Amino acid sequence: MTRSPDHPWWRDAVVYQVYPRSFQDTDADGEGDLRGIARRLGHIRDLGADALWLSPVYPSPMADGGYDVAGYEDIDPRFGTLADADALIAAAHEHGLRLLMDLVPCHTSIEHSWFTQHPGRYVWSDRDGPQNNWIASFGGAAWSRDPGSGRWYLHSFYPEQPDLDWRNPDVPDAVAAALRFWRARGVDGFRLDAIDRLLKDPGLRDDPPATSPPVLPEHADAGTLEHLHSRNAPDIGLALGALREAVGDDTLLVGEVYLPAAQLAPYLEHVDCAFAFELLHAPWEADAFRNAITAALDPAGAAGRIAWVLSNHDFPRLPDRYGARNTRAAALLALTLPGAVFVYQGDEIGMADGPGGDPPQDRAGRDPHRHPMRWEDDAPHGGFTNADARPWLPAIEVDGGGVAQQAADPDSVLSLYRDLIAARPALRDGLTFLDDIADGVLAFRRGDDHVVALNMGDAPAPVPPAGTIVRATHGTRHRAGGPAPAELAPGEGFVAAYAS
Ligand code: NOJ
Question: pTM of whole model > 0.90?
């Protein structure tokens, strides 16, 4: 892939999200590990991805699936050792893959030694009770009493995740040290967790009541307030500038900013790109998708700086949100938009949600989206772990089979992902929507010579004339190299090229 200041490696990259606990177990404890990821790098390379992002693998009591970090510069024993991390980074590079870690700068685990040894690094109430009316992202008051000191601390997420005080200069220094630690070990970049929560109002003022529903879905409770003071501080650049300074310009920083695209500009001054969550939350309707894409491409400076994402470990999987019929068209869309795209493990084989954990592992109900990867239908637990091990969440079956089965089938979802990713280099320039095609049809031109069309409606619909199929969602019906059809059934789509 091209490397230049105008076109850095990540600009059109496909980044594969590994949820380490559910990827590949090698020590039969029922949880995935770093050695397992190293063993499966060939799958990520064969998919055609440019990089992988690991959800957190740091020491953690797992109150929030690892997003409760008890030490930034180490590996949780369940995932392996620092030596395993070094080996994985080296192996990824040998596979031609870059590796991104997940950095969680907004909060630590309550079990992090900082909480007792450096209490000044956290946000405390000066009252015997909550300082204000803020509500945590998962619901309930954002303040809890520390049984040790009896004081009340702020937590934007679970009570086990006390918020760091980014207005105390000690905090940027300490987190910057962690970034440099991993950078020195060869990591190529970081996905920055929840950075819209990093800085809050210095006066910790009450949030006002919400006057309109939030643009992005919130926990029912959290949505009753407008997060005017509890997040998205106007001087966010103070904190983000420190993160950027710690790593320099050649390290990819991807922002998880849970805000509408129109509010991303101050973040994009310091991070390279940010996820477009309006698209992830858009209902499966052509107009809604078109609006979400336009919003993400529009804001000043954001063009080409958007990381497209339709799915991750926090939300229902694609067949559950869009309907099984539309899963392939969703992949077609995400992989043909301009800019970087993130693919969540399992999406490339069309995985659906599984049951909740028994007992539940995540109190916010996200277990169903985190089941083990399905590698091989004929192996115990789908190849995730040994026969006599008990996976932390049960291995579930996948329509169309595991990776091994789908790799052998040219019309599988996996083959669709591989072919679409292979076709991406031809799609580099611009995006222009094609208007007034038919109800439910989303169609756009990429550059002068490619057309993408999909039928998001419930009835067969005409699509714009478009030369030769490069790849269709249903390759047996619309063969690559054949003429683009004049009509698509619901859930069908294609990318096609005009002869030049
Ligand atoms: C976003 C992460 O994706 C999610 O899993 C986590 O619960 C929150 N941030 C809090 O760290």
Answer: yes
